[in-house]
User: Fold these one by one.
Assistant:
Number 1:
Amino acid sequence: MARTVLVTGITGFIAKRIAHDLLAQGAHVRGTLRKLHRADEVRTALAGLGSDALERLSFVEADLLSDAGWREAMAGADAVMHTASPFPLSKPKAENEIIAPAVEGTKRVLSAAQRAGVTRVVLTSSMEAVMHGVTSAPMTEADWSDPNAPTASAYTRSKIFAERAAWDFAAAHPEMQLTTVNPGLVCGTPMDRHTGSSVAVVERILSGRDPAMPDFQLPVVDIADVSACHVAALDRPESIGRRYLCADRFLPFPDMAKALKAEFPERRIATRTAPNWLISTLALFDAQVALIKPLLGKSMSLSHAAARQDLGVDFVPATDAVLRTGRFLATK
């Protein structure tokens, strides 16, 4: 009998791809939505799988900040993919606007799963919970971000605290079989036009609105690999109790811009590197820019060996992932 997997926040960029890949394997997928009217958006994104797959797709209305709907969401599920979490591109008015849904929502989902006897959970965390205030070269699953690091944002803290809360819950309830996946900047080809904040980074470079690129790196991963890590974890018992870095490598912004410019030579894409003094000056007036100031000119590396070995994922090269996003956006 096909398994039933609950995917929280199924309208999300990552969640839609996970739902697609699970349905393609023959699983039943139940997705949570804050508002059921967005169910048609998900059905449309996944329509290419055919009517048989869509018949195995269902929805429950549930919010991370409310208990309503979670018992129904968990009923009969064999596993949970907890992907739902806020990811803002601009700074929130109050940190708790991001941290509370992430932390309390994670606790609520795990508690509902445990009460329902659903013990297998794969949680979407982030490289944000790994890379801040860390000097390891390369970074590995043993590394945890310092929430007080000068580069740590409210979003960073939300991912650190949410993942810590999940591991604390699993420690308190030994029957829970938890795996966390920690993606970097998620690029690649989205399932639809509702792409969220990750794709907006590439969209900004394509727009040519910035005269130069900061000497700053981000870990980049293709959406297909993010989904592959989540789905493989369900079938790999060796992943239980483990966290996995999910990115190909750190890619500098100027390198992203140069790759996109080569692909789209007709676009006015800035490829030169902004002097660090200029970014430092801008940081005096922009809190978001101030966060990257300590990382200017810093070379970082990561190891995805654990994901390759345990989950069997061969990562798409970071530049290719960025170009896939660029091609997708160019057709808009």
Number 2:
Amino acid sequence: MIKVEHLQKNFNKSIKKSGLAGTLRSFIRPEIEVFEAVKDLSFEIPKGQIFGFIGANGAGKSTTIKMLTGILTPTSGVCEIEGKNPQKNRKEYVKNIGVVFGQRTQLWWDLPLRETYKVLKEIYDIPDDQFNKRMLFLNEILELNDFIKDPVRTLSLGQRMRADIAASLLHNPKVLFLDEPTIGLDVSVKDNIRRAIIDINKEENTTIVLTTHDLTDIELLCSRIFMIDKGQEVFDGSISQLKNKFGRMHEISFQVANIEEVFKLNYTDFFENIDMEINGVNINICFDATKIHVTELLQFTLSRTQINDVSVKDGNIEEIIKRFFRKEIEND
């Protein structure tokens, strides 16, 4: 469905030196520096896959998405959806994609939501029977009926996000780009949005490209993760492969009997690649189970203090990725 080959995007930045002389020099003879926002990215996404596109701020995610949606033109390389080029086949291309940016809306602020959809119906030239059938499906999946008569400006953030997703799906696109679809939402609304995304993907086999900083979205939704850093690919695979590649992170929590003995538990002096958090009598430790065995930590703890409670669990993907971007995980 999506094909990306050797995608590159460079930006020219003018370098300004300090002081009045530097300002004049940059005005008369500017010094230009080339910044590589995206560096030689290549990947393919098959039809119906939910593709998690992740990375730290400034990694190049938004630049890549803007090239895939036709907003930016690549410096070099190729990106296509069903053989169509986003920049050269603009009108044909946009008929096959839907885009939702979490911080921006495509809805008309003062129009009732129902009227907004009617405007979009005319823009996309959707026949009446298809539009009515589509609205029934979207109402069922996204539960729009409770607020479909309300002006967009009166909608809550969660309602507006559901309304935006529906707007992007009115023309039945083959590919849906979701940029931070759950940002700023409370837990219950996030769950509703996630269920809707799963249902849309299941019912219509829609290919979904998801960028998010909420890694619970990634764990619950994505069958594949593509991670970039400084514009370059650093990982492409499943969540289980990510955990196997960058370490089996585990968490162990202790509740000590005597808060005054917490200082004796100086784990970082004896173990490498370990994170420790202290909250009163509660101690939480995150460690790489391929390098440290849980029995070692238990023996170390019991030899120094008495504990009232202990629990062990697998660490989540968020901790793995945090540690990766802090350069605390060694590559294989």
Number 3:
Amino acid sequence: MSKTILVVDDSASFRTVVKLALQKAGYTVVEAGDGKDALGKLTGAKVNLIVCDVNMPNMDGLAFLKEVKTMAAYKFTPVIMLTTESQESKKAEGRAAGAKAWITKPFQPSQLVDAVNRLCV
């Protein structure tokens, strides 16, 4: 059975790039346009990993990450932050909130797939 990845980014074209890379690697992908949209999709169904942007409207990635970690069904779901943010302070905030990896855009799809393969349980 293929593993499910939730991709959260406000850029539809960016979600498509990520989705194609992950589908090619054999994953099922669910897309969300921001943190609020993503929370609406976390309805108890198994999500093996979340790839999330930081800067988004409505609910940013760090607020979304903190919220996910309070949900019993997703508390241990690994989250990879995929963002243009590269400041150490943001990365530290992400780690403190529970992010397992931080990939800076622009990125190589293979780099993302490697990280997903390592963390996806």
Number 4:
Amino acid sequence: MERTVKIPGPDHPITVEPHPSRVVVRAGGQVVADTTRALTLREGSYPPVHYIPLDDVQPTALVPSDTVTYCSYKGDASYFSLVTTDGTVADAVWTYDKPYDAVAAIAGHVAFYPQHVELAGS
């Protein structure tokens, strides 16, 4: 299947910048990630998304999922289910293992759907 690859520009800007402060992610009352190395991705009119280095996420909090999606600006995203004290939330976390060049900095990072976690420091 042919994949369309789009380059960010004035009609669809994307920026990735270091987040200036500490970011703590909690789920089910437990800290699942804590970092001073988050990246903030801003894409068009979408809300900013914090990408957390995978090294700064509790390894027991993530279980790989079979879900895969595609973004023509960022590439293939794979997903994790989030394990919390309240149970497991399917596909609550995503990552781009091999993101396109325009967003290469987010490789090795994960993002959390905000409706499933509490983000402090954002």
